[in-house]
Amino acid sequence: MSQVTLWFLIALAAATALELWLASRHVKHISRYREQVPTSFADNISPEAHVKGADYTIAKTRFGMVDTLYENGLRLFWTLGGGLALLDTFWRSQEFDPVWTGVGVIISAFLIMSLLALPFSAWFTFSLEERFGFNKTTPGTFIGDLLKELMLLLIFGVPLAWVVLWLMHSSGELWWIYVWCVWFGFSLLMMWLYPALIAPLFNKFTPLDDASLKTRIESLLDKCGFSSRGIFVMDGSKRSGHGNAYFTGFGNNKRIVFYDTLLKTLEPSEIEAVLAHELGHFRRKHIQKRMLMMAVISFLTLALLGWLIDVPEFYTGLGVDQPSTYMALLLFMLVGPVFTVFLQPVFSKLSRSHEYEADEYAAVQTRADDLVKALVKLYRDNASTLTPDPLYSAFHDSHPPAPLRVAHLTAQGQPHPAR
Fold first, then answer.
1. Measuring CA to CA, which residue among 236, 235, 259, 239 is closest to residue 141?
2. How far is 29 from 20, CA to CA, in rounded Å?
3. In a domain, 127, yes or no
4. Are strands 231-234 and 255-259 parallel, antiparallel or unpaired?
């Protein structure tokens, strides 16, 4: 057994064991407090709603445990099981040039992976979400979304794969720098295109027609120095009973979006507070910071791939006998997540710190208690657990646990002059 094979198997086993152990802790912790509403929520969350949130989270966590085993089993099939090697043999037999052969292998691999994940996606939507009253997706909508995703893969994925592989073939030892430039530029382009081109393929976006609420929101936007291409309501109820709000895009193509389910639940002052939180991310430059972090991480990972691509054992140790640029790329994408699992607490901690900062900004621009009221309603309506296991949360939660977040907001008190 080669060193690459050994380290891959050790990392895969460790990552799988870690995920299952964390999930098991999470389930036990939630079960222990299933019928105990935290004191700070006792006046606003009923025992029935708290039990529903606990049961929903436990069901999702157990689903995630099965999904983890399935995904890592497939990871073994694609690598040491010879799945990628078999796919490579098929496309090589078609006798295309190396770049188009690589495009065929990559795109077909992604299509097969999507098909293999389809049963889990369908079960989650039509069984688990249905059981807790959240699913609004019809089979027709589900299939339609899959076809649209396929269309986007072909429209954007094929040209991107061709350009990346062409650069890897033709730009010498520093190919990874050119690929990084293309990848980062493509990511920025997709962020810019998403609000007006991609998102409307899946949902309907209509301008906010509540004149009073619109005036209130526009006043807040002016106060915060935020300009956008409009305030829109998304038909989230078409697919789910969950509610949310966000702003998307960047530059001169930013949009503010409210789920229709959210607008039906919150009072105007609470909607304003939720928006102020989202604007807090903008004013505290969290988007730019995350983009910079993404740029640095992708640069370093591509530099690592630039070294691995010339190491024969990287291929043979992962079940591939014929080295190629496209196979190096696929192997790296398949194996990479096994090792990055152990870095999740770092990224989660950074994300949670951004959420606290955005909450603080919202407390300044609006009222802390309005945001607390909005969050409590969202926790209740989305059946979010109020008692996550702390260690599981440290690995998996991008937002602070509900009790800590509410306590932090409560400590902010009443608004004071903007900072």
1. 239
2. 14
3. yes
4. parallel
Give the CA distances from residue 56 to residues 41, 61, 120, 228, in Å, rounded to whole numbers and listed in that order. 18, 9, 17, 36
Out of 19, 88, 129, 359, pick the active-site residue: 359
Single-letter code of the amino acid located at 331: L
Query: pLDDT tens across 41-100, in order?
Result: 988 899 999 999 999 999 999 999 999 999 999 999 999 999 999 999 999 999 999 999
pLDDT digits (tens, 9 = 90+) for 277-317: 988 988 898 988 998 999 999 999 999 999 999 999 999 99
| Cα distance between residue 163 and residue 182, in whole Å | 8
State the residue range of the domain holding 115.
3-178+303-341
149 in catalytic set: no
Domain for residue 414, yes or no? no
> Alpha helix locations (H) across 284-343?
286-308, 312-316, 325-340
Query: Which are the contacts of 264, defined by CB distance < 8 A and separation ≥ 6?
Result: 243
Distance, CA of 30 to CA of 193 (rounded, Å): 40
Check the CA dihedral 42-27-390-121 and report its sign: negative
Total domains present in the chain: 1
For residue 379, being part of any structural domain is answered with: no
Is 310 assigned a catalytic role? no
CA 246 vs CA 14, 274, 379: distances in Å: 36, 9, 16
Contact 71, 12 (CB under 8 A): no
Catalytic, out of 19, 270, 272, 278: 278
Count Cα atoms within 13 angstroms, Cβ side, for 209: 4
- 391 within a domain of the structure (yes/no): no
Residue 13 tokens, joined: 């086993």
pTM for this predicted structure: 0.89
